[in-house]
Specification:
Layout (H helix, E strand, L loop, with lengths): L13 H13 L8 E2 L1 H8 L3 H13 L3 E4 L3 E4 L4 H25 L2 H19 L11 H15 L3 H5 L2 H18 L2 H17 L2 H12 L6 H7 L8
Antiparallel strand pairs: 1-3, 2-3
Length: about 230
């Protein structure tokens, strides 16, 4: 079982319950394939079933739960094919960001961005020993990519993908904890920065592609160890 520690306050509104349940799913505290119910959640959160029904509808629209009449409601399984497609999309976007860094930023702007990336990397090193993806490191990881994305004004484009990227967030929580990959992620970040500093766009894009493609290396082992987490076929 891979899951985060809970430090959340008790939610009061439908929106707060939705956000907390979404976080619980993404952080694997509600596990893929787990049976949940309106009665269970209304008792847990101290609200009516109609409130939970609204929350369930929103979670279903995002693809995080499946509702089967006469059978129950289940946290959706992870679909490696879908995740692979999302990773391809994310990689294409970030490779385009790198292209624009090299073609649209002036030397002074790129130098300033590199200083911010290097400062971020120094902070990442403080959390190299985090065993999973639920501590401080994920914030620094997100900030690392955001520095590059913001440098070329592509933050609005990334926000368009927010709901899709939630599925990648759940996969990343699983992936990093499964193989204790924080040290590897730091080294991959360093290689991206080194390539940018060298002025080598092809190398930078290749490093980014290797950094974001996270399925191939662990798919067989992950599905063997956690077969109930993943959709077949």
């Amino acid at each position: 079982m891979i899951y985060a520690k809970s430090g959340e306050s008790h939610p009061n509104t439908s929106d707060e319950i939705f956000e907390q349940m979404l976080n619980r799913i993404i952080q694997l505290r509600l596990e893929p394939g787990q049976l949940i119910s309106e009665n269970q959640m209304s008792a847990e959160y101290g609200v009516s079933r109609s409130v939970i029904r609204t929350v369930f509808t929103r979670l279903k629209q995002l693809g995080f739960i499946e509702i089967y009449p006469q059978r129950g409601t289940y946290v959706s399984l992870m679909d490696l094919s879908h995740i692979a497609d999302l990773l391809t999309l994310r990689t294409a976007v970030e490779k385009e960001v790198l292209y624009e860094i090299f073609t649209e930023l002036g030397e002074a702007e790129r130098s300033q961005m590199l200083k911010r990336l290097e400062a971020n990397l120094k902070e990442q090193e403080k959390y190299r020993d985090e065993a999973d993806y639920f501590g401080r490191f994920p914030e620094l990881d997100a900030e690392f990519h955001k520095i590059m994305i913001d440098s070329v004004g592509r933050s609005a484009m990334m926000r368009m993908l927010d709901s899709l990227m939630l599925h990648l967030a759940r996969w990343r929580n699983f992936d990093v904890a499964f193989d204790n990959r924080v040290p590897q992620l730091i080294e991959e970040h360093k290689k991206i920065v080194e390539a940018i500093a060298e002025g080598n766009i092809q190398k930078a894009q290749e490093c980014m592609g290797r950094h974001l493609e996270t399925i191939t290396a662990i798919a067989d082992r992950a599905t063997a160890k956690y077969p109930t987490y993943f959709r077949n076929g």
